[in-house]
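Record 1 of the preview.
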Amino acid sequence: MAENIGATARAMMNCGLSELRVVAPRDGWPNPVAVPMAAGGAQIIENATVYDDIAAAALPAAPPAKRQKPMACAPGAPKPCPPCKASQLVPVKKMPHNSHP
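->
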């Protein structure tokens, strides 16, 4: 349904995605019903590519870019904490089942 494609375009816009691939749309394409549901993602609707089958849509549009150097972790990702020593552990008071503190 065109409304679902429009809602998908809106979700893609919210997540910073732009390449919409539509496979064998039931109600034909382009479909003006999709644009109001896109709520700001009309450009994604206008640039959508239509495919006859899922196999064609799954092919990459361009070869993936090669990374210049491997990254140890994503920028801003939390670093793992060092292992705890037994002397640093705090005993936990066990509560009876179904009781609240």
